[in-house]
Amino acid sequence: MKKILVLALVAVVLLAGCEPIVSLFRPIVGTWETTILGVSVRTTFSQDDTYTDTESLVGSWGLTQEGTWDSTENSITKTSSGGSETEYSYSFNSGKSELMLTQGGISVTYTRQ
Prior knowledge:
This protein is an alpha+beta fold. It has helices at residues 2-16, 19-25; strands at 30-36, 39-45, 50-57, 62-71, 75-80, 85-92, 98-103, 106-112.
C-alpha cells in the first residue's frame, strides 16, 4: 500500500508541469497569438495566474503589459499591474487550438502557439 501511495505521489509531481495535462484542466494556460490591423498580439496566460501581453508591429519593438488573470466557465478577467480590470467572454474551437475573446461585441480569435 505504501509503494502505491509513493508511486501515485511521484506521478502527480511529474505530471504537474506537463503541458498536455495542464491544458485539459486549464485550457487557457499557454501562449496565444493574433494579428489585428498589422499589429501582432501575443498573450501568455501562465499557470501561476499571471499574464503577459505583447503588442508589436511585425519586425519592430513592442509594448508589454503584465498582470494577473482569473477565469470562470465562460469569462476571463485580466487585471493589469496598474490595477485596471478587463473582462472578456471566451470560447474555444473543438480542438482548443483557437481561443476567441469577446468584449463589447467585438471578437478576436487567437491561435495557440
